[in-house]
Input
Amino acid sequence: MEFGSSRDLERYMHEAKDILSLETKLFFLLQVSSALRFLRDSGVVHLDVKPQNILVKVMRTSSCRVGSMILKMIDF
Output
């Protein structure tokens, strides 16, 4: 198991308020859809997909650019 010290997507969206760009929203949507496709192809069903069960991991602490963030699904 991996320790999740990142913020969840709900908290991230709440803190960012209305400043999330369309590029960021599309990037997040692509990551979530890719994860769900992978789970489906692996025969796994996640029955509780919601922003609280998606962690936002920032790869570089000095920058919060879109490419430096990874979403991780939790709570299976």
In short: The mean pLDDT is 85. The radius of gyration is 13 Å.
